[in-house]
Amino acid sequence: MIPMPAKRPPIPLSRERIIEAALHIADGQGLRRLTMRRLGDALQVEAMAIYHHLPRGKDALMDALAEHVTAVHAEPGDSWQETARAWCRASRAALREHPGVLALALTKQPKGRAATALREQTEQLAEAGLADAAEAVRALRAYVLGAVAVEVQQSGWAEAPDEGDEPWRPPSQGGGSPAADADFERGLDAMLAGLATR
């Protein structure tokens, strides 16, 4: 008799696994399709099991997803302009990687690691000599969010499919198209030049 292969133990549920599965649903099908039941199915657990890791349920999940795409880090450069440019590029890359939760990044107040990252960015720019670094960070953050929102909208990613159609496809991962990259850098140059004259 051929012995039956041993069953693999189930992968323990964790906050990280929940967020990863939620991002997969949001990026592939859109945020409106992300329900606790659908998330539970993707994780092969009862939806109530998710509440052990996110006691506030859907609200906590939305906060966690927003934090995931906005809590970026960048190493300081030789000047405040280089540091700011590194932050903006890192922020754009994180938002483009998960367009399904862009709406949360646009509407959720930064909390947790996201708020810590903003404070770090402000401190780095201030230490590099930029006057009123907090105001500059707010302006740069608004620019990046707006630029990515336009980029995603132009990609056609957010056009909702009819029932039975293929799931949504996110824009190309990593860097954008050459034209989108050039537009972003041109706008960033203008932002940095404006901040330098304040």
Automatic annotation (TrEMBL):
Domain HTH tetR-type residues, every copy: 12-72
Keyword presence, Nucleotidyltransferase: no
Keywords: DNA-binding, Repressor, Transcription, Transcription regulation
DNA-binding stretch(es), residue numbering of this chain: 35-54
Single Gene Ontology BP annotation: negative regulation of DNA-templated transcription
GO molecular function: DNA-binding transcription factor activity; transcription cis-regulatory region binding
Positions of transmembrane segments: none
Taxonomy, superkingdom: Bacteria
Keyword Isomerase: no
SUPFAM superfamilies reported in the protein's UniProt record: Homeodomain-like, Tetracyclin repressor-like, C-terminal domain
Span list, region Disordered: 158-183
Protein name, per record: HTH tetR-type domain-containing protein
